[in-house]
Write a structure and sequence with these properties.
about 300 residues; alpha+beta; Phosphorylase Kinase, domain 1; D-amino Acid Aminotransferase, Chain A, domain 1; 2 domains; 8-stranded antiparallel beta sheet; 5-stranded antiparallel beta sheet; about 30% helix; globular
Length: about 300
């Protein structure tokens, strides 16, 4: 597949008040009760936004999240109102004439007060968790069982919250530290919901030959105190997807997420060609194309159908 650069969108400009711009998403205010999230094709790795955008990435993140929100009905309340551009325009007439910027990549959502915590759950030990464990036998400073190998399954899965950083790196924190931030009752409910969503996601992914090694969720609460799932859900940006038929503990695993891009950048760091900070190095066209293909492949594998790129 040849991916035209014109298919990649790095920024949005809509006739609504923009509340913020994250590494990937632009956030707009619709009214007191609703937000519009627009997932661009910006690519972040090691908390640095790359100069090159990844075609179809924003649509993959949005539509795979919308698919999961539908699967999770009955498991958790969530913020999604619609991820259909025509429905969004009908609900927000000010967006008429901006369908091309909305198609596939936008979500009309309920507005919440966001908990300042990333709810990470790890079913397998990998990534930053493996790095800390291999050095000290701990995760967020707390001791884990001895003798674990890279990519070993964790039974039960470990709930591993992290602080949300406005800039720079999120940091793993203990549940005790989390309780100090959100309170005991909210902390317990966030862990319960995280485990329930992950269990539902694992079961659905396993049926398609995918291991969700770890993932992270965000939650907000409504004025009546109801806690709901927000942002993205079990996407290639927020999760590690491994092919079940190639799983072998004791090493890193092949993946359907952006791990290949991370590996490319890590190779530059080890070679002394990049210091890991902004500005990022240029990405070769083949890395951009392969990363886009992996996002599209992840969507197809998780949902069971290809992304309708012709509609974007």
């Amino acid at each position: 597949m040849t991916l035209a650069p014109t298919l990649a969108m790095t920024t949005s400009d809509l006739p609504l008040k923009r509340l913020g711009r994250g590494k990937v998403r632009d956030i707009y205010e619709v009214d007191a009760d609703r937000l519009l999230l627009v997932a661009t094709d910006r690519m972040s790795a090691f908390d640095v936004v790359m100069n090159e955008a990844i075609p179809f990435k924003g649509a993959v993140l949005t539509q795979i999240s919308a698919w999961w929100f539908r699967q999770l009905e009955g498991t958790v309340a969530h913020h999604l109102i619609s991820a259909n551009a025509d429905e969004i325009i009908a609900a927000v007439p000010a967006l008429k004439g901006h369908r091309a910027a909305l198609a596939g990549r936008s979500m009309l959502c309920k507005r919440t007060t966001v908990f300042p915590i990333e709810c990470v759950i790890r079913g397998y030990i990998s990534g930053s968790a493996w790095k800390e464990y291999s050095q000290s036998g701990t995760l967020a400073g707390e001791k884990l069982a001895e003798g674990l190998r890279e990519s070993d399954k964790l039974n039960p899965a470990i709930f591993s919250p992290a602080s949300k950083a406005e800039t720079g790196h999120d940091e793993n924190i203990t549940i005790t530290q989390m309780r100090a931030v959100v309170g005991d009752k909210a902390a317990a409910e966030l862990e319960r919901l995280t485990r329930a969503i992950y269990a539902r996601g694992q079961a659905a992914a396993e049926a398609r030959g995918i291991i969700i090694a770890d993932t992270k969720f965000e939650f907000g609460h409504q004025p009546d105190g109801t806690i709901i799932l927000i942002d993205e859900v079990m996407t290639p940006d927020s999760s590690r997807f491994w092919p079940a038929d190639q799983y072998a503990p004791g090493r890193g695993q092949p993946s359907f997420d952006k791990q290949q891009l991370r590996d490319y950048l890590d190779g530059l760091r080890k070679a002394g060609k990049w210091n890991g900070e902004a500005p990022p190095p240029p990405l070769p066209p083949e890395v951009v194309a392969e990363t886009s293909a992996r996002y599209l492949d992840a969507f197809r594998r998780v949902t069971g159908a290809p992304l309708n790129t012709d509609a974007l």
